[in-house]
Amino acid sequence: MDDVALAADGGEGVTDEVAVLGAGMHPWGKWGRSFVEYGVAAARAALADAGLEWRDIGSVIGADTVRGGYPGYVAGATFAKALGWQGARVASVYAACASGAQAVDTARAQILAGLADVVLVVGADAAPKGFFRPAGGDRPDDPDWLRFRVLGATNPVYFGLYARRRMAVHGDTPEDFAQVKVKNAAMGALNPNARYRSRVTAEEVAASAVVADPLRLLDICATSDGGAALVLSSMEFARRHGQAEPVRIRAVSTVTPRYPNTVLDLPDIATDSAVAVDPPGETFRESIARAAYEEAGIGPEDLSLAEVYDLSTALELQWYEDLGLCGEGEGVKLLRDGATALGGRIPVNVSGGLASFGEAVPAQAIAQVCELAWQLRGEAGDRQVGGARVGISANQGLFGHGSAVIAVR
Amino acid sequence: MARTRTPVVAGWFAGEGDGFRLLGTRCTACASVFFPREDHNCRNPDCSGGELEEIPLSRRGRVWSYTDSRYRPPSPYVTDPELPWEPCALIAVELEAERIVVLGQAAPGVTVADLAVGMEAEVVPGVLHEDAETTWTTWHWRPTGVKA
């Protein structure tokens, strides 16, 4: 290949692809064991899925656990040691809920740069019970500590603000939100890796306790234990390994917001002011998806399925619009038309989503890509999207971390 | 002995009664406004960075959204575990002049049933909690009665 021409093209157009050789999970739940155990189980599952041995891995990228909003346990070296030191290159990343996408991005960069042929990406966590809370001690210089200290603003408070705003601006109702849970629970019931595997009715959502008005307990995702892993490789390695047409990662978006960010984001107490600089023409979440589409050279009309971060039911509707699956304010219509259910035009969260998994922060964005891989291979069993060719995952991490992955087959 | 009144965060608000205001900062180079205050660097990516001067924010704005906490928040939020938790409303208010949305607790007695997106709210002095020596003060948003 002409290196000079490649460099000149580096800032535009489609990035080279990497292959997804293996995907694996430790089932989500509240198992009460160490994150290391979940991560190792997921890693071994992904290696077995890829038909590779641990000694074949040239690099390990770990998504760090989250403790008090900030990096908790170092992941990469911990998993490498637990699997048995074999000298692989190692890195650990932290981007809160977006850590998994950064891990995939780092692995991809190493592969495309020729630093490693085969990379193991692992994320796992054992989530503490109850609300996520900030780190201890007096930390008045920490925005995550301040929102709890000054306002008692838990994560569901922010989800409640977004939900109420949608009700006022778009006319969404709590009954609409409940239908997201009904849909995702029905699909999660088909997924052996999901924590919650029972169907849920709209009446059950309406009967659950209000946590942050207008959202109820069954509108909001739980915190879970779980682990997910991927084995990624160069396309050349995949061919040598007998994988002529593997699932490929075509884009990874890890963008930051653009000033002024006028949507109130966790853990902030205020938005940026737009008094001196007009806001960009798109929100941060919209820009996460656009960057992925541009890199992949595709648009929302090309998607077979999407895995989005349904921290709350209302937030899933927001993602429909931010991904361009429908126009602004049309999320409820898309849902009510059945377009995002299994068998619909663009199924969303056929894994069951966070509604069925609960959040194991560093594993979650990796788990989204695992689901894309299984769907694109046609190995998703009862929840298979027929003829799936292109999938996107999307989420947003605390402190301004964009995350989206586009996979194709 | 009387308790000392101490702001829960220094420099974020000042004044009494009708003179109470949130305090932000403004870049003397590009006029960007910041709350919570930025004292060391302007965050406008196209600004080379001017001095940041303290300014009071508008007293009134419009409700952008609202919610409440039906469950007791974890520490460092301070509550008395002996007392039952009373749901606390939170309001995000958009200030027209500054083009900013600022979150705050609602004034005591205000519940989500009293609120609607678009109604006017004003900032008022409030008490976050008290301990043996200190009354920790904060800002509250209170609807003015002017509807959307």
From TrEMBL, chain A:
Residue ranges occupied by any Thiolase N-terminal domain in the UniProt entry: 19-124
UniProt xrefs under NCBIfam families: PRK06059.1 (NF004715)
Phylogenetic lineage: Bacteria, Bacillati, Actinomycetota, Actinomycetes, Kitasatosporales
Thiolase C-terminal domain boundaries: 289-405
UniProt cross-references to Pfam families, sorted A to Z: Thiolase_C_1 (PF22691), Thiolase_N (PF00108)
CDD domains: SCP-x_thiolase
Superkingdom to which the source organism belongs: Bacteria
Annotated InterPro entries: Thiolase, Thiolase-like, Thiolase_C_2, Thiolase_N
Protein name: Lipid-transfer protein Ltp1 (Thiolase?)
UniProtKB/TrEMBL annotation, chain B:
Listed InterPro entries: ChsH2_Znr (IPR022002), NA-bd_OB-fold (IPR012340), Thioester_dehydratase-like (IPR052513)
Domain ChsH2 rubredoxin-like zinc ribbon: 21-53
Pfam families: zf-ChsH2 (PF12172)
Family annotation (SUPFAM superfamilies): Nucleic acid-binding proteins (SSF50249)
Protein name: Benzoylsuccinyl-CoA thiolase
Originating organism: Streptomyces lomondensis
